[in-house]
Amino acid sequence: MGSEVSRSGFPLVQVATVEDLDPPPALSTKPTELISYALMNAYERDYSHLTVVSEDTRALLGYLNIPRLKEMLKNGMVRETDHVEKAMQKFQRSGKVYKVITMDTPLEELEAFFNEGARGSGSQDFAVVTDGNRRFVLGVATKGDLEEFVKRRPA
Question: Cα–Cα distances in Å, from 112 out to 15, 100, 120, 141?
């Protein structure tokens, strides 16, 4: 088995991408759904984050961080009978730069995003994986997914 080379004679190195993590499909909820329903869906699939999309346009509005939601319930900040919009973390539409993470994003970029955020905005626990035009949510990748991939990958 010979190694492939580029036109200039340099060896081709296969770069691992987000697709190699095989992220599970995103599970989306709507702002008007009950928190209890969103929690049930997250528990059934063992998801730590749910995306929140518009009922009309399916545009990405924000997300539910399930560990944070559990704390909010425990502290009485929200109830299971409240709507998701009361507990969701909203994406800022103006003045904020978002890093586009696609299935083709190299894992080095994903790691940098987890550690530094978009343009140094701070560490992130998860990334919403979209198509290149940010029209469709394809999945969610977490720091844990990346750490597990690194553990399984041969050196």
Answer: 15, 13, 9, 13
Are 45 and 66 contacting, i.e. CB atoms less than 8 angstroms apart?
A: no
H helix intervals, 8-140 = 18-21, 35-45, 66-74, 107-116
Tens digits of residue pLDDT in 92-134: 766 666 788 999 999 999 999 999 877 667 788 889 998 888 7
Question: What mean pLDDT comes out for the span 73-83?
Answer: 98
For the question of whether the overall pTM of this predicted structure is more than 0.90, the answer is no
What is the token pair recorded at 102? 């696609």
Give the CA angle between residues 101, 48, 75 to the nearest 5°.
130
The Cα 99–Cα 128 span in angstroms is 10
The two tokens of residue 83 are: 């709507």
Q: What is the structure's pLDDT at 25? A: 85
Q: Residue 24 is which amino acid?
A: P
Other CB atoms within a 10 A radius of the CB of residue 49 amount to 22
